[in-house]
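re: ur question from yesterday

yeah so i grabbed the chain u mentioned. its 154 aa long if i counted rite. heres the sequnce exactly as i have it in my notes:
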Amino acid sequence: MEYMSQEGYDKLVAELHQLESVELPQVREAIAEARDKGDLSENFEYHAAKREQSRLLGRIRFKQKVLENARVIDMSRLGSDSVGLLSKVEITNLNNNSRMTYTIASPHEANLREGKISIKSPIAQALLNKKVGDVVEVRVPAGLLKLRIESIQL
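ran it thru and got these structure tokens back, copy pasting raw so excuse formatting
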């Protein structure tokens, strides 16, 4: 079961709709065009279009499976006293005194550019169920981080 925000769920539904209603028909059209060109055994366009169709169908199946197992979290039932899924956490890296703000998100919603880290990441795992003022140590590829939780919001 995958827990996610309503925003993340809606985004996945839109992606799936785009794949099924726009991209897949385009690929099927490309296959039909390539098929009309004759000998399929040496037809590069045909084989490329078939590979693309296979890749698209795989992505569609994956997104359908994720949506099948998705559960949207009711934000009104979440507390902001400790770090959990969909918490916006401001932390200070005690090694260099830099401040960062991350939102703990489902793996399908994680996007570092938007400040969303996966709940399965080492930093998020270390922060889970901690409270404001707690200091956690996290082993990351760059070494050991000491992080202090400054604030937690929803």
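noticed a couple things. Strands lie at 2-4, 70-72, 88-93, 98-105, 116-118, 135-140, 143-153. also The radius of gyration is 22 Å.
anyway ttyl
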